[in-house]
């Protein structure tokens, strides 16, 4: 029998990992469809039917076909009642983190990772992206000082969204030793039941639950 959830993505993709991690931490099994970005499978007419932006991840659940990882995390939190905020302020705080991440961290961090792992670019472009990512990592580290998780005492899907990016610190050639509060939070994330690292969690081929 098909699982209720089908995740389309790539094992190399941080946004795919965010969604996979959320599903895993919620104890939800899912079918997986590998999308080969190198072959351009995300730009085929069939895939553009699933995601008009031509990007992974996509999550299918019943009649819904969803894209944009942070938005999918919010959906899964609503569906499961897990990893959400307990109050209006906590829910706003989660959204605040997600918007900040999409603006100040994810694009710069992931481009830096891309340059280091897959294809070098003009050194000035690489340095520009790395510098902004480092400022973002500094903000994250400072705001984690004295806190167990980003919002309150419990993990929320804001933690899952941010973790899904910074987990690739080594591939982006950022030294975790520079950000000790982030490193300590990282350990707390890894201790959560159902936690898996990206390459353990995401298959390299289609898989049914
Ligand atoms: N904001 C999007 C970003 C998704 C994204 O950048 N996906 C990358 C893979 S990590 C992708 O599909 N890139 C191909 C492209 O943009 O053409 C999300 O969070 O889902």
TrEMBL record:
Protein family per UniProt: Belongs to the GST superfamily.
Protein name as it appears in the record: Glutathione S-transferase family protein
SUPFAM superfamilies: GST C-terminal domain-like, Thioredoxin-like
Pfam families: GST_C, GST_N
Domain of life: Bacteria
PROSITE patterns to which the protein is assigned, alphabetical: GST_CTER, GST_NTER
CDD domains, alphabetized: GST_N_4 (cd03056)
InterPro entries from the UniProt entry: Glutathione-S-Trfase_C-like, Glutathione-S-Trfase_C_sf, Glutathione_S-Trfase, Glutathione_S-Trfase_N, GST_C, Thioredoxin-like_sf
UniProt domain GST N-terminal: residue ranges: 3-84
GST C-terminal domain location: 87-209
């Amino acid at each position: 029998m098909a699982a209720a959830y089908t995740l389309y993505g790539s094992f190399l993709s941080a946004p795919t990992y965010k969604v996979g991690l959320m599903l895993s931490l919620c104890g939800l099994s899912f079918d997986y469809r590998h999308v080969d970005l190198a072959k351009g499978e995300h730009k085929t007419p069939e895939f553009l039917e699933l995601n008009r932006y031509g990007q992974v991840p996509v999550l299918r659940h019943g009649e819904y076909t969803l894209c944009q990882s942070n938005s999918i995390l919010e959906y899964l939190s609503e569906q499961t009642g897990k990893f959400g905020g307990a109050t209006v302020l906590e829910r706003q705080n989660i959204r605040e983190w997600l918007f900040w991440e999409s603006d100040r961290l994810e694009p710069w961090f992931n481009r830096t990772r891309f340059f280091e792992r897959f294809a070098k670019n003009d050194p000035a472009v690489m340095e520009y992206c790395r510098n902004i990512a480092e400022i973002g990592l500094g903000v994250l580290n400072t705001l984690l000082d004295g806190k167990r998780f980003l919002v309150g005492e419990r993990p929320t899907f804001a933690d899952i969204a941010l973790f899904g990016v910074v987990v690739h610190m080594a591939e982006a050639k950022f030294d975790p030793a520079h950000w000790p509060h982030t490193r300590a939070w990282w350990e707390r994330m890894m201790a959560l039941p159902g936690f898996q690292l990206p390459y353990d969690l995401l298959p390299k081929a289609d898989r049914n639950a």
